[in-house]
Amino acid sequence: MAVQPVNVELCNGCGICVRICPLDVFRMDREAKKAVTRYPEDCMLCEFCVMDCPENAITVTPDKSSKLIVSWG
Amino acid sequence: MPSEKAITTDVLIIGGGMAGCFAAIKARERGVEVTLVDKGYVGKSGQTPFAGSFAVFHPEWGHKLPEWMEQVNTVGEYVNNREWTEIGFLDTYDRYQDLVSWGVEFHKIDRPPQPGRPRLGPCEALHTEWRRHAEILRKQALKAGARIIDRVMIVDLIKQDGRVTGAGGFPVGADDLLVVRAKATVMCAGAGGFKAAGWPIHELTADGDAMSYRAGAEITGKEFADPHSTSAEFPAAFNHIMRGGRPMFGLLINSEGNPVRSRGTLFLDLEFEAHAGRAPITQKTADGQVTRIGGAASGMSVHKAEGVWPAGTDCSTSIPGLYAAGDALGNMQSGSVYATIGLGLSGAAVTGARAGWGAAAYALQADLPAGDGDALGGLREAVYAPLKRTGGFSPRWVTQVLQNTMVPYYVMYIKHGDRLQAALTIVEFIGGHLVPKMYATDPHELRLAHETKNMVLNAEMRLRASLMRTESRGCHYREDFPRRDDKNWLAWVLLREERDRMVAFKRPIPEAWWPDQSKSYEERYPYRLPGEYIAS
Quick check: A72 and B393 CB within 8 A? Predict the structure, then answer.
């Protein structure tokens, strides 16, 4: 759904996606020196990450589903 | 204990879209120190990167001011603030020239007329490449010497002795407190939806309105709902929809196979059709067809409607030290409908520049008050409360229950007093019981918690303003009051906090701006709303 896990084979650890995402979806894995798609449920599909990633390591699909509504959570 | 960092500046700008960048650049021109803070990244922030149309009025291009004014007055159904409508045209050429000088490229597009819709009038816009102009604005703000702080969410304004003296928030990647002490503050974190699928405005959570309201500002325009639509197949995929041959310009066909009846300059056709039981509604595109649904920007108003009520044409507000611009300024430039293309972006540039100059002038004659009294104690508490709680309700779940209450079309699009009141009862419960029990486990969730709190406040504002306006006008449709009521409602609805309660009140529109009351109702309002009868 929406933003996919960052492709670690391609990611060069530049951190652009972490910096520019309007919804704060990415984080850096400091040990692996790679970006991680940490909060995909908050993606709004703007595709800034796809456009600005210099290594084409990020994919956003047009579908997005939300969690089931439950009594409390 | 989280660390604290305090900085001082002459002018603090909150929000880095078109308005915020213009405010920063123009304030710097007056020689003051400027700090621009955004919870995302300036250059990718707000609606600006997604907006491609910029209205430019220029008499040498054959434009006539009375004709442009008439378009907004009539399409906006006479609740536009004509002083601002005029400023919003007269200033555009200078702002356009600014953008051109910074490297923004404009071009003309001849859009085909929308089937079944009248041409709105003579107003026209130039077009820019999406996203590119926002990146140029960032570069220009930095070049002008503004300090940019990205990824810091401002939570609340600091108020001392009745005056706004800065704001405080936290970095979304860490739980430190950032306090910015400022002689003047410009609110540019405008507009806000409920993170509904379909429009890329999920970071717009009415933060500007909420912060300003909590600081005592007057908020307006919350009843005029933004009518953008999306596709049922991929409701969240804005880019996907826009790449599919811009389907929003094709003929709409209802479930009975008939064209959807256009209501002229009223833009709730999809909602009227769905309410009558004639959905799904399809639209032909270059490569097939899509099913269209409304409410893509649910929770947002028509551009330039919602926001802080301006006290003057320098974008000052009723609170000393607080300025507002862009969609954070409720200058009612466009009235009850988005009355001409490109007015959102150009209006943000125009008000951003004016707010930058206004705030700079204020900062040049003001001193920062010594000490911070007890202002920071309350701020610290407000910022960290969700992180301190070990349990309660998650912000994502509270957002979900808010969406379930507010997003269905029969609340904010096809309105009825009974349903508005029912939704208000639920939203008051969400605000009173769930919001104070939201918890966050990390700074990302802390941002979500503050966003949710602001969205719930935005929902209450929309419901109260919609209940107050007991008529229909433009993008505010009440099926229990399906006519425009000039006798009672040539007025704006304003909201402000009084003794911890939200109070709605009317502000009359000057009589000189009323439609000609000697004309018949049908002449004043040529387009009929569903259920509207004509007295013969």
Answer: yes
Looking at the whole model, is its pTM more than 0.95? Answer: yes
**Are the beta carbons of A24 and B131 separated by less than 8 Å?**
no
In a domain, B522, yes or no: no
**DSSP for B44-85, written as a single string:** S-TTGGG--EEE---GGGT--HHHHHHHHHHHTTT-S-HHHH
Q: Do B397 and A21 touch (CB under 8 A)?
A: no
Q: Percent of chain B, pLDDT > 90?
A: 81
Residues of chain A with pLDDT under 70: none
Specify the amino acid at residue B19: A
Query: Could you give the CA distance from residue B368 to residue A15 in angstroms, rounded to a whole number?
Result: 37
Same domain, B253 and B145: no
Q: Nearest to residue B321, comparing CAs of B184, B157, B217?
A: B184
Q: Please tell me whether residues B140 and B118 are part of one structural domain.
A: yes
Cis peptide before B2 (omega within 30 of 0): no
> Per the domain annotation, does B527 fall within a domain?
no
CB contact under 8 Å between B41 and A21, yes or no, is yes
Give domain status of residue B524, yes or no.
no
Contact residues on chain A for B207, CB-CB shorter than 8 A: none
Residues of the domain holding B259: 230-293
Question: A10 to chain B nearest CA, in Å?
Answer: 24
Which single residue is written with the structure tokens 């300025």?
A: B323
Evaluate whether residue B520 is within a structural domain. Answer: no
Kindly report the CATH number assigned to the domain that includes residue B349: 3.50.50.60
Instruction: Please list every residue in chain A whose beta carbon sits closer than 8 Å to the beta carbon of residue B45.
Output: 22
User: Distance between CA atoms of B317 and B362, rounded to whole angstroms?
Assistant: 12
Cα separation, A44 vs A17, in Å, equals: 14
Residue A39 C-alpha, separation from nearest chain B C-alpha, in angstroms: 9
Same domain, B87 and B219: yes
Give the pLDDT mean for B379-400.
95
Of A20, A24, A73, the CB nearest to B394: A73
Residue B527 has pLDDT above 80, yes or no: yes
Residues B243 and B323 in one domain: no
- Cβ-based neighbour number of residue B317 at 10 Å: 27
Nearest CA-CA distance, residue A9 and chain B, Å: 25
Chain B residues in contact with A23 by the CB 8 A cut-off are: 40, 202-203
